Amino acid sequence: MKGLVLAAGEGTRLAELNLKHKSFAVVNKKHIIDYSLDLLCNEDGKPLVSEIVVVVGHNAQSIKDYIGDTYKGISVSYVFQAERKGIAHAVKTAKDALDDDFIMCLADECLFNPRLEQMVEEFYLCQAGCICGVVLDGEDFSMKPIAYSVDETGWAVSVTEKPDAYENDIRGIGECVFAKKTLAYLDELQPNPRRGEYEMGDWIRMIIANGDGVKPFVLADAYCNINCAKDIQSAAEMLEHR
User: What DSSP designation does 181 have?
Assistant: First the structure.
């Protein structure tokens, strides 16, 4: 299994901090990208993945200089995303480097009490096309997280990107485990007509429609997506009190 870290964004709403890259924002004396990279190791520090692929874009060299060729003994490679056209577009950019099942992480999220190793175990146990990380009754709605509807056994029957309202307490976050075969659907994926981006929700809908199975998994007690300066303080306070 490989790890995929999406770190191409410019982070214009963090411009006031004069960072080389938005993922260098510091929460509790730790860069937020390190929270994402550390997810790819289990609680004993052993790697969950054989390689980490990092998608870079804005100020790419700063990310390469910071991480280097290895992270805690895991080989690291880089893919350049020339245009930022959504999360699914970023994954499609890295498609040729992902020749295995993979864990996708965002470089601008902090998770609280994450259970990624258990999510990987569930992925293999249920043989899903995708296991989607979620939190229950998440508090951060600034980015309108993905909404999932599930059947009585917990499998997703529908997914909505940036909904106007939520019918349950399941809030999608950026961390997911994908089967290698689901990458093929990215060749068919079209930009979302409302926003012009290749969206993760549309990709997951294709996985459901093709019968590969999508299952939400409660990955953390809570999360914070770092989009502006106030989010850094919010994340620090949440970490401090959990």
Answer: G
